[in-house]
């Protein structure tokens, strides 16, 4: 068990870093090269990030008295959809990821674990 745990941590950290790089935070989703678009699609960080921005910035009122910038303008600049239905789509995708991970963890623990009950 001692050798499996650090290996698992390293894999989780590597995948989390990759997902964070391709979620659209550092580089807009539309600016990602076409051969890396698949990484943006499977990134578990893309949907919470875009959903959070949609939830926060879906407003027409300006954010400060000196700059006349609305939330919809910010979302448009980031190439994030402003439809309400798209926000809920992000939530459903996140729930789908949670279900997929649960099933994956069950399969791995059930069929690939060397620890057996006695």
From TrEMBL:
Q: Which GO terms describe its cellular component?
A: plasma membrane
What range(s) does the ABC-2 type transporter transmembrane domain occupy?
A: 12-57
Q: Look up and give the membrane topology term.
A: Multi-pass membrane protein
Subcellular location(s) of the protein: Membrane
Ranges that cross the membrane: 7-27, 91-112
Does 4Fe-4S appear among the keywords?
A: no
Q: Keyword set for this entry?
A: Membrane, Transmembrane, Transmembrane helix, Transport
* Coiled-coil region list: none
Protein name listed in UniProt: ABC-2 type transporter transmembrane domain-containing protein
Q: What is the lineage of its organism?
A: Eukaryota, Viridiplantae, Streptophyta, Embryophyta, Tracheophyta
């Amino acid at each position: 068990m001692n050798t499996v745990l650090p290996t698992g941590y390293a894999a989780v950290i590597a995948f989390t870093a990759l997902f964070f790089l391709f979620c659209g935070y550092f580089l807009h989703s539309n600016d990602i090269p076409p051969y890396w678009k698949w990484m943006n699609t499977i990134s578990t960080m893309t949907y919470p990030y875009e959903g959070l921005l949609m939830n926060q910035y879906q407003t027409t009122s300006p954010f400060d008295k000196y700059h006349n910038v609305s939330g919809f303008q910010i979302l448009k600049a980031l190439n994030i959809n402003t439809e309400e239905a798209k926000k809920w789509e992000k939530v459903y995708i996140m729930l789908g990821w949670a279900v997929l991970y649960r099933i994956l963890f069950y399969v791995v623990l059930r069929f690939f674990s060397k620890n057996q009950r006695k």
